[in-house]
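2024-03-11 09:14:02 DEBUG pipeline.ingest accepted 1 chain
2024-03-11 09:14:02 DEBUG pipeline.ingest length=356
2024-03-11 09:14:03 DEBUG pipeline.predict start
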Amino acid sequence: MFQSTSDSVRRVDCPSLKGEVSNHKEFLMNNTTKLRILMVCCLVPVVCAPFAGMSFISPGEIFATGSPDAEVFRRLRLPRTVAAFFAGAGLSVAGMLFQAMFRNPLATPFTLGISGGAAFGASLYVYLGAGAAFGVSGGIWAAPAGALLSMLLVWALTRSRGAFSTPVLLLSGVIINFFFSSLVMLLQYLSRADDSLRIMHWLMGSLAVPDIARVSDMVFVVLAGFVFVGRLAPALDLLSAGEELAASRGVEVGRVKLWVFLAASLMVGVIVSLAGPIGFVGMMVPHVCRRMLGRRHGLLLPGAFVLGGAFLVVCDLGARTLFAPAELPIGIITALLGGPFFLWVLFRGGGRGVML
């Protein structure tokens, strides 16, 4: 009888288990193929964008000596496309990180006060006229400093309640974001007319005539942050399934959240210093990637990186061509797309704000 039961287990259960493993491997292979296709599709608009504008620049012109089109391509369009790609990539990855930590598709750098702190730092830099003392490139550290200040305040408020609590963290982020937004409006009111206009224009988001040195700094920070958080992908998989499960599997939940929060804050701060507080990218792109690639962050993070970059490149192309020669702030375009998307995600989730 025992031998018969054992044979039955081998005949029935083992093939079933092998089938589940085979299906899991097939699922991963399919999603990996989708990621490769996504990367190729995203590469097309990124490569084409520098050639498009008020006038089309042919590929042959960019190598012509003394050609005005070649100068426009190298000094304006190419750096701007690079800036748009890495700004979109960084915002998307940061949004993906926050959504994984809080298991909420509506969690964004704005929700947690990071963008508000970065906007305050950059606005204070303009108000104090610090560019005259530290140079224009010094402004790239003002926004990250504000983002880190916001993060520390949110973290301190959360820890003051004892154990690390995600609801308290989210509520603290919303409060801090409103606080810094009020300070930005105060600075704008107290500033001179030209500085107030600069702050208002910057708050709407713009990638016009980016400084190459600042773009290089942003590229370095975004790439470093992406590589760092990529090593935390297995922990993010467990966190997105629940903090208790992650802790039971050996994940130091508080420590991982701190590192992820720090890396995402730095990326967002540097991006905001260059392009302004561009909204909704960190909410829309991760949600689309999750529907396309599943929930494994080993695939989601690179997917969000390339799709977010390509998305903002396309938005920037629209900003500089739709009403040419006038240029729309890129934040207006992302808000027009993100507002309806936000409502769709909210109502599709039944207003519960759960991970979809």
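2024-03-11 09:14:41 DEBUG pipeline.report Residues 31-51+71-348 form a domain with the ABC transporter involved in vitamin B12 uptake, BtuC fold (CATH 1.10.3470.10).
2024-03-11 09:14:41 DEBUG pipeline.predict end
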